[in-house]
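User: Predict the structure for this protein chain, please.
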Amino acid sequence: MNAETSSLPPTPSTTSARLAMGFACIGHTYSHLFTPIFFTLVPLALEKQLGLSHGETVSLIVAGNALFGFAAPLAGWLGDRWSATGMMAIFYLGTGFGMVMTGLSDGALAMGIWLAVTGTSASIYHPVGIAWLVRESVNTGTVLGINGIFGSLGAAMGAVMTGWLMHAMGWRAAYVVPGAVVCFTGILFVVALARGAVVESKVDRKPPPPPVSRAETIRVYAILAFTMACGGIIYNATNPALPKAFALDFSGSGNGVLTVSYLVGLVYLASGIMQVGGGKLADMYSARRIYLLTYLLQVPVLVLAGMISGGTLVGVAIVMVCLNTASLPAENVLIARYTPPHRRALVYGLKFVVAIGIASLGVVVEGAIFDFTGGFFWLFVTLAGFAAAGFAAIILLPIEAGQSQPAPAE
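Assistant: Here is the predicted structure, written as structure tokens:
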């Protein structure tokens, strides 16, 4: 062993690495619970409970959604400078507590405040957890795709659990019960840290890519910021639109509450599975090419979604959300490729300022267009325009050297 090798920090044990990956993946599920729970409750309970219109009700989560993105850079900076594991502990405990208090809140103002607390705490996951996964992975796209399943599972679980818990115990249980589970997981994580079962790694398993010029890095960041805003607006606008559209079509049937929650859950579960495919393709082929293709295909699918309803809409919605989420592993691979490891959590945090913080305006757009038109045609046409703009921007990304042919299997 040479002096350079011996000077490197020790890598964690296999058990520690596996536990870290497990907690990171579970954390991704938890980070995506609070928004689908809310958006599923809006047409099924909260509009009537709070005496507000659809647009006024969905606006209660705008601050929480914005902080989910805007607080991410600070979380990433602290993860880089202080401790990734310490930040993850705060994530679990803060998110769980915020969810419990959201369920116990009385009135619109209190609900908005506690949703903001939940969003701030949940903002820790994406910059810290994704940087952690990139550090531990070799086939980065595939690992990010698998991790993406857990995020989409959170969206699916949030919708389905909301139907079950509301049906059995009332709408408040939809937040209190999962919030308590998140808190308990946080306690287990703290215990694992205290006993040394989880040890924070500071070394990338995969060798870093060759350095690129500062000018090219700035160019890539500027293009990705624009495309992430487009994709984020699409995702944030469809989050409340799908439960509302399904409620209009299906809530009049026998078990309308459960039917709507099952359909929303089905859409997001399918999108999670698709992320694995997107991640594998990003490892095999050019991440830029996969990113480009997913945005191009969203354009006609979004237009079609605005023209149909009923059971056909469910199928088109699955394709629509799958294409949106399939772009994410390629996007994160591109960010990692142009970012030094010691700044990765910070840069991922900045990503979510755009993809979730600024793009949370998609919720406002959805509510305003529905209240004005009484339907979703113009919403989906507008979102198709954002997808087309993202496609045009991705064309300007530099072609990745050595990625024109499929990578050999490992």
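The radius of gyration is 21 Å.
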